[in-house]
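Hey all, quick one. A colleague (J.T.) asked me to put the NAP job into the tracker so the inputs and the structure tokens live in one place instead of scattered across chat threads. No bug as far as I know, just bookkeeping. Sequence used:
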Amino acid sequence: METLNLQNQDSILVNNQNFTVKAYGTQAADKDLELMQVTRRALLDTDVEIDIMYCGVCHSDLHTARNDWHGSVYPVVPGHEIVGKVVRKGSKVSKFNVGDYVAVGCLVDACLSCDNCQVDLEQYCLNGSTGTYNSPDKHLGGRTMGGYTERIVVRQEFVLKMPNNLDLAAAAPLLCAGITTWSPLKHWNVTKGTKVAVIGLGGLGHMAIKLAKALGAEVSLFSRSENKKQDAFKLGADKVIISTNTAEMQSVKGKFDLIIDTVPYDHDLNPYMMTLATNGTLVLVGFIGQSKYPLHTGPMISRRRAVAASVIGGIKETQEMLDFCGEHNITSEVEVIKMQDINTAYERMLVSDVQYRFVIDMASLKAE
Ligand code: NAP
Ligand code: ZN
């Protein structure tokens, strides 16, 4: 499709209408993802239209496709690690030009005026931020449709600039796995010498290791998987603790200032609490919901330990993370797949058979 500059008002009148694009999505929790069409809105003055080149595959995509969190409205078109090129822009877009390499993460809108938005915490918008998929769509009605699509239209405030030295496919996971682990690392002031541990070596976990290491932390990994040990060291971990081994768990009692817990499913936090130092905090970014494992508050009270949780990051913080990754040449370890392989990829992700993020090459969707 030819690019079009909407600063030319005639072009707006002639061509600016809602349009459809190819997508992969699912019609129900127990159905595979399949080819479908979704509608993108006519560009508003402050909108950017992005031709999607790559989209990372987050475990949240799978949770939403399969209604693990009980809020999915079908059809669900997942994808919130989006990298692409600007192909059109509204007349009031000042941040981007046609041809720029840009990115979109987990958010496409927020009120930008509440107390949280005012301090760049759009992810905690008090009026409800709009997720890139499965959120109420203010413009078209229905739900927002994510990045497993050819193109997306996003207001410029929620579009990020890609550093020009990073491989675009490998950088896509920074938009969720990167920012979700970066935000707690920054919030809890991780710096040189901070003792950080990460639970789970998957998409988020491997980014947590890389980012914490780049911030100067001493980094450990808790994993169930013996076979990931060598990879963890290569990624920058100083120590690996097999979480099912009681002696290994005992050996790190009272050690960590911060634990980032990326495990997607319900699990017992009590063994990890014991490994926090005085004033240490365990931050949940994975499991959402009511746990069946009661938390023993004794170890928390006795050392002022805390359990907290965190969701993605704000737009300013996401740009800071991208710029940091550009400066330090940090990207994800990725396996690039075709859109048509997404259902197999989900099955492999469920059994932790991914090193360490799938990224969809959208050329495969465009060719279908
Ligand atoms: P992932 O790539 O599947 O990695 C999760 C890792 O957790 C696995 O590699 C595995 O590591 C460990 N694990 C998996 N199942 C487990 C189980 N039943 N018990 C114990 N450990 C298990 O997933 P991801 O994309 O990194 O996402 C992780 C979680 O974060 C998901 O729930 C996702 O929805 C959530 N998330 C949250 C946010 C946020 O803003 N808070 C943003 C993005 C994603 P080992 O083999 O090393 O044990
Ligand atoms: Zn995600």
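Adding what we noticed when we looked at it: The radius of gyration is 21 Å. The chain has 13 helices and 18 strands.
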